Amino acid sequence: MNHETQPSWLAPEGFAEEVRTDLAWERGLAIKCVVAIVVVIAVVVIRQLYLA
Amino acid sequence: MIDPTAIAATMGKWTLVVLVMTGAVPLAAASYQFLLIGLHHFRNHYGEVAPVFPRTAILIPAWNEALVIGGSIDRLVRLEYPPERLRIYVVDDASTDETPELVQAKARQYPGQVFHLRRENGGQGKAHTLNHGMEIILADDWMEALLIMDADVIYEPDSLRKMTRHLADPAVGSVTAYIKEGSRPNNYMQRFIGYEYITAQAAARRAQNVLGALACLAGGAQLHSRANLEAIGGRIDTSSLAEDTFTTINTQLAGNVCVFEGNAIVRAEEPDGIAGLWKQRLRWARGNVQVSFRFKHLWFRPSPTHRLGSVSFAIFWFSIFLLPVFMILSSASLVVLFFIDFPLSWATFQKLWIVNAISFIFITTYSLMIDPETSRRTWVEGGAFPGFVSLAIILYTVFPRLFTWLFTTSLDVVGTAATPLVIKSVVFTAYLWVAACMLVAYLGKVAEARAWWRPLGPLFVYAGGYGPLLCACTFASYIYELRGAEMKWDKTIKTGKVAA
To answer: Which residues lie across from B114 on neighbouring strands?
Structure first.
């Protein structure tokens, strides 16, 4: 295949970039997990304050 | 002096308390599963991927798919994948509509890339149709990987190559993708399913990646290496209604790894009503009953060759499979405690719902963040997943004074008061609700089938809950399997509503 017309997804650098993007998404999910835990803790704390 | 009667009574009560708390097992297990997703960043298969493009045969079983098959083939040939390494085989399962003519026309339009395989004696089910195609494809050594899909699903242009990159690791036998509900326009049922797929696929299958054991390769997106197909005997199991789960388990028993690729997106049209959902899910649930018994030697038995026997995987599997049992046991025990020790029943009920409320808030908050694109359309159904009545109980659990104020104000509006009898009646109803929600959600199916009652169908689902509707379906699957009911392959009707 001619390098000039080669789609980016076939190029090694395009592949590496795509994997980095997907890994960044997975890292985002890890952060969102922490956010969801913080939301739960916040609800529990508000409940305790509300009941106090 | 020891009083045996008093000891027996105390033990009986505490047994009931334990049984009540089994109602919290499914959501607690789901929370554990969701916590594992946070580890997917650290434990995934991306370290082993490479830009590989095996010669891939796409196998599409098709029975009367004239509405969708032409568009599906056009989109498949445009996938971001080297065209000389891609072939599409449509196994036409004795279609009686224009499917054969349409596929033959596409075979002429894309010579050497699209193939029409006709099965004259059809109607035996998807597994038989797939086996017909696999036999032909495996007979030719051109194929290095096989993608099994459904006729209506739409692959994002990059999805196939995002799946094949995992086959660079010879330990990987199969890869599956994230199937999203893709109907446009969609209705309430398809939004419920859209949200459910965030939890059951994007979330749960990432957690299974972390565990190293996958429960199911999605039927519409299964990529297998040739070596894996040969290792599992070159055929799909035809003795059950869960052929995709059998393939998944057999793959892992053969020592091959199954990977869920959450960034490969596939869109599918799902049922738009309760009857269609019930038909589809009853088939899946009956298949799960068959899997549970057929592979009974696997559960809770760790093995050096696969992770299917891990305790965590068994907890995930049985917390879903036995969900109706947990709900009925919990509700029945609450009712018994109500009559023999009301204060203990009330304290236990509150503990049950504290666990459920915390789990629900965590799971829902996280799910809505996992797939923002789907969440924008389905957040209402995500919140309503357990049903509005259960949501009211959750509201009471979290903010009891607010709920009590709302409740007494509502009673004032209708001209009554919160007398002890009214309060005890509400509490008793709440105890029953733990299991009765399944019945109420099921009434939605009954209502949908009757012309005058049809508009009430969605109301029953929102009130009883989509989750409880699926539980009712699982309960029905027990009955069907106990009765040894005939295994019918009821195809989900597709109309080509999936937005490209």
So the answer is: B88
Residue numbers of chain B with a pLDDT score lower than 50: none
Q: How far apart are CA B124 and CA B118, in angstroms?
A: 14
Question: CB burial class (10 A; 0-12, 13-18, 19+) of residue B371?
Answer: buried
Instruction: Check A50 against B158: CB less than 8 A apart.
Output: no
Using DSSP, state whether B218 is helix, strand or coil.
coil
Q: Could you tell me if A34 lies within 8 Å of chain B, comparing CB atoms? A: yes
Best CA proximity match to B426, nearest among B452, B453, B388, B389: B389
CA–CA gap between residue B136 and residue B117 (Å, rounded): 9
Cβ-Cβ contacts under 8 Å, B44 against chain A: 23, 26
Q: Which residue type is seen at B442?
A: Y
CA distance B391 to B379: 14
CB atoms within 10 A of CB B342: 13
Distance from CA of B349 to the nearest CA of A (A): 18
pLDDT band with cut points at 50, 70 and 90 for residue A1 = very low
Which of the residues B263, B375, B395, B396 would you substitute to probe the A interface, choosing the one with the greatest number of A C-beta atoms within 10 Å? B263
Token pair, residue B122, equals 């059809």
Which chain B residues are closer than 8 Å to A19 by Cβ? 46, 49, 165
Identity of the residue numbered B183: S
Whether complex ipTM tops 0.85 = yes
Q: Which residues contact B278 (CB under 8 A, 6 or more apart)?
A: B445, B473
Buried b / exposed e across B135-153, counting CB within 10 Å, b at 16+?
Answer: ebbbeeeebbbbbbbbbbb
Q: b/e map of B222-261 (b: 16 or more CB within 10 Å)?
A: bbbbbebbebbeebbbeebbbbbbbbbbbbbbbebbbbbb
B132 vs B23: CA distance, rounded Å: 45
